[in-house]
Amino acid sequence: MTHSYEDRIDRVTAYIYEHLDEPLDLERLADVAAMSPWHWHRVYSAMRGETAAAAVRRLRLMRAANELANSDASVEAIARRSGYDNLQSFTRIFAEAYGMPPARYRREGSHTAFNPAQNGAPTPHYAVEVRHLPAMTIATEPHLGDYMNIGMAFDRLFGRLGAAGLIDQSTRMFGVYGDDPSAVPVDELRSSAAATLSSPPAGLPVTTTRAGDYAVLRHQGPYADMRAEYNWLFGAWLPQSGRDIADAPVLEEYLNSPRDTAPSELLTILYLPLV
Predict the structure, then answer these.
(1) Span 112-137, mean pLDDT?
(2) Contact call for residues 109 and 225 (beta carbons, < 8 A)
(3) Pick the CATH number of 2-107 from 2.120.10.30, 1.10.10.60, 1.10.472.90, 2.60.40.10
(4) Radius of gyration of the chain from Cα atoms?
(5) Does domain 129-273 bear CATH number 1.10.10.10?
(6) Is 129-273 the same fold as 2-107?
(7) Per-residue pLDDT, 113
(8) Is 104 within 8 Å of 115 (Cβ atoms)?
(9) pTM
(10) Distance of CA 245 to the CA centre of its chain
(11) Domain chopping of the chain, boundaries
(12) How, if at all, do strands 173-177 and 190-196 pair?
C-alpha cells in the first residue's frame, strides 16, 4: 500500500511539472492521484512536506525566475505563463518570494554579477577552491529533460529512500549533470538526483561518485542564477586556472531545500571535475 501511495504522489508531481501552463486546481490533481479530493492533499502534504498549492506556486515562480534571468521574454508574458493575468499580483507575489520585483530581478538579480557585459562592471573574481573529493556511495534517480525540472526526480528518490528509512542527519543531496545544456537539446539532457548513503542495504542499486580534484564554488541565491555562474567558471576561471576539465559529470550539492527556504537563501555548492 505504501508503494501505491508513493506511485500516486509521484504521478501528481510529474503532472504538476508537465502542466504548469494549465489550471492546476485541487480537484484536477486529485483525479490524477486517483484519490478522494477530500483527503488526497493531506497525503501529498504529509509525504512531500508542502501542500500541492504551495508546490505549484513555487515551481511557477522558479520557472519565472529562470526566464527572467535567462531569456528575453517580457515580464507580462512570463506573468501570464505563471498563471497571473494581473501583472500587479504577479509582481507582488514574485517580490515576496525573491525579495525584489521581477523587472528589478532581471536587472539586478545575483545572476548579473557574473555577466560583466550586462552590468558594465570589470570581470569579477569569486572564491574558487580546488578540493580533492573521495568517492561517495550514492543512490540515484535518473531524470531526462530540462535541468530545472530535476526536482521531480528528487521527489521520487526521497519518497523511495524515506519509505525505506534510509534518510538521516548525514544524508547529503546532490544533482549529477552529465550534459552541456548549451550543446544538447533540452529534452535530451541527462541528469540524476542523488543522495549519499552511509550503509546501503543489500539489494539497493547504488553507484559511486568520481574521486578526484574538483573546482568548488559556493552559490547563494536562486537556482536560476547558476547558469551565469557556470558561464563564468567555464569561460573565465577555467582558462586561467592551468587545469583541464575531467570527463565526468558536474555535481551540485544542495545544502537546504526550496520547500522551506527563500530563494535568496538557497545554498548550493558547485563541483567542476578537474584533471
Answers:
(1) 72
(2) yes
(3) 1.10.10.60
(4) 19
(5) no
(6) no
(7) 61
(8) no
(9) 0.74
(10) 23
(11) 2-107, 129-273
(12) antiparallel
Q: Which is nearest to 153 in space by CA: 17, 270, 266?
A: 17
Q: Which residues of 256-270 are buried (b: 16+ CB within 10 A; e: fewer)?
A: eebeeeebeebebbb
Cβ-contact 171, 140 below 8 angstroms: no
| Residue 75 pLDDT > 90 | yes
Crossing angle (nearest 10°) for helices 87-98 and 52-70: 90
Residue 30 gets the label, from left (phi > 0), alpha (psi -120 to 50) or beta, of alpha
Give the separation between CA 269 and CA 251, rounded to whole angstroms: 8
At CA 219, angle to CA 107 and CA 183, rounded to 5? Answer: 75
Residue 118 C-alpha cell reads as 550586462
- Return mean pLDDT, the chain: 87
Looking only at the bridges linking them, the beta strands covering 250-254 and 267-273 are antiparallel
User: Which of 64-78, 113-127, 198-212, 237-251 comes out lowest in average pLDDT?
Assistant: 113-127
3-state helix, strand, coil in the chain (%, to 5): 45, 20, 35
The number of residues making up the chain comes to 275
Which of 222, 199, 212 has its CA nearest to residue 251? 212
- Going across the sheet that includes 129-133, the strands are 129-133, 212-220, 267-273, 250-254, 173-177, 190-196, 137-144, 207-208
